[in-house]
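Q: My labmate handed me this sequence with no annotations at all. I'd like to see what the chain might look like in three dimensions before we decide whether it's worth expressing. Could you predict it?
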Amino acid sequence: MATNVSVSDESLSRPGSDGRKNELLRRVLFTLFCLAVFRVGTQITVPGVDLLSMESFFGSLSNTAIGFYNRFTGGALERFSIFALGVMPYITSSIIFSLLALSFPYFAELQKESDGRKKISQWTRYFSVVLCMFQGYGLTVMMESSSGISGTSIVINPGISFKVMAILTMTAGSLFVMWLGERITEKGIGNGISLIIFAGIAASIPKAFRGTYNLFMNNEISFIAVIAILLIIVIAFWFVVYIERSYRKVPVHYAKRVVNNRVYGGQVSHLPIKLNVSGIMPPIFAYALLSIPGTITQFNLASRIPDSLSILRTVLESFQAALLPGNSLYTIILVGLIIFFSFFYATLQFRAKDISENLQKNGGFLPGIRPGAKTEDFLTSVVNKLALIGGIYVSLICVLPTILLVNFNVPFYFGGTSLLILVGVALDTIAQAEGFLISQRYDKLYKVKGKSSSSSRRF
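A: Here is what I predict for the chain of 459 residues:
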């Protein structure tokens, strides 16, 4: 005689819910621990550096390329810490190999295979080491040739020994940060690299509020300007959240089909495509590439040109000055790179060919569009239009601080890439946490139902 085991919804939810919460709590705590380790590392200074001279030196670079790069590292650069390079070398290396995959068939074929992707990932890490050493050398030369406001040298004992020690220390620190981000992605919650950048930017928020308060107390900005800044912050956050949660819904119809005397399909659904398809990666890519010329300018190449080539020295000095944030050339290049990477990253995120093939295999089609190549062309056209809109939207957010500072003399610390990263990473992390809970719920439900179905076959 068979015994039927019935499982109520309450019994399904209680043990599964506790297990999900415990697992999610462990992942959140692990993520917070890794971020705390990162923040501790940003406070450890490379040996042989005068901290007081360093702080006074970076105080005059808040609106330069070095100052913008310092925000991504959470202030690690202004302390010349072991994590001064951050994750930017790894991001730059990832950009290069992603471009190679789009330009050369050999790399494109490697990306289609699991072993090939592992090989590209390994090459990306190796090239990150090269970039770390290159950027570390540039920063070391800059520090040795710079001094604080009082005229005290930043580096106590400059020389080849300090260069080697500083380059190796910062390279090892950057690789450790990269490893830390991968561990967060694997065992924590959210994207590790994005969360590390998020933590660096979030750590600078109290300093930004304190800077605005000091400006107000010193009568450098009025009370109305402070209120205007707060309103702009609220409006900017609302606007970014609204855009990041906006989707273009492409209707999808599924044809009816009969399998084993059962009717499948015949339903109407939609394919959601984010308005900002590329997310926060285009501005990160753009700033990562723009940090390379900023590093090169620290070699003081113009001062090494002889007087006989004064015209060349003048041109090089003008070019170096034009690449500083706030200048027209820098803004034009930044906007161009953001729009370019919006299209580039949209093609990586949304593969129209694969989606078209999956729709055709499952009996899905877009109304009025033939399956196959026509569907792929239509989806590509939709994604390109959204990428253009998203690129313009991201560009406007990124140049907002420059517009307010140059035209209205209003310091705005919460705009640009910082705002996009704070909102984008927060939304993505919340979405991954919700997805984790849902997946765990289905796993528990499947296991419990499996037990009930197997026990019902006992005699």
